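Example record

The entry below shows one chain as it appears in the dataset: sequence first, then structure tokens.
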Amino acid sequence: MNAIRRFARGYVWLVETFGILSMAVVAFVAVLQVVFRYVIGASLYWSEELMRYLTIWSVFGVAGLAYSRGEMLGFTVLVDAMPRLPRQMVKLAVRIVIVVFLTVIAWYGFDFAWRTHNDLATALRISMFWVHLSIPVGCVLMAIHVIAQQFLPEPEPQSEHIAFHSGEALE
């Protein structure tokens, strides 16, 4: 079990680092593009493509982690109000539907990526396979998170309650 925890921590560190670094590169390239366009007077023709593809990879790469942390938009008021057993059954059914959906998207996403492996990005001149591969990779990672969520203990819901008492009126 200790090895699984170490693996999980390493995986989370890797995904978080990838997300942070890719967004840092996007921000740096955006600033660089502005400087080159408006100060130097010469645009970086490849900057928009790089930023777009890094953003796509970042979103698909960290989406599973966001799901596990409960950071995805969800409407759970009715499910949360159910007794424990029906709530667990509904969550299992929803997770099965999500995994099936992600599997289908991953399958067709890889097929699409493979069919575009001879196409090149306009500015970067890389195979579009590498860009489109983000879809199946992201779907598989998210499916793993959804499956793991089913077997991990359910965390206690954290309320985002902000205390405001009558004595704390704005003054």
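Notes for this example: The mean pLDDT is 89. Residues 2-40 form the longest helix (39 residues).
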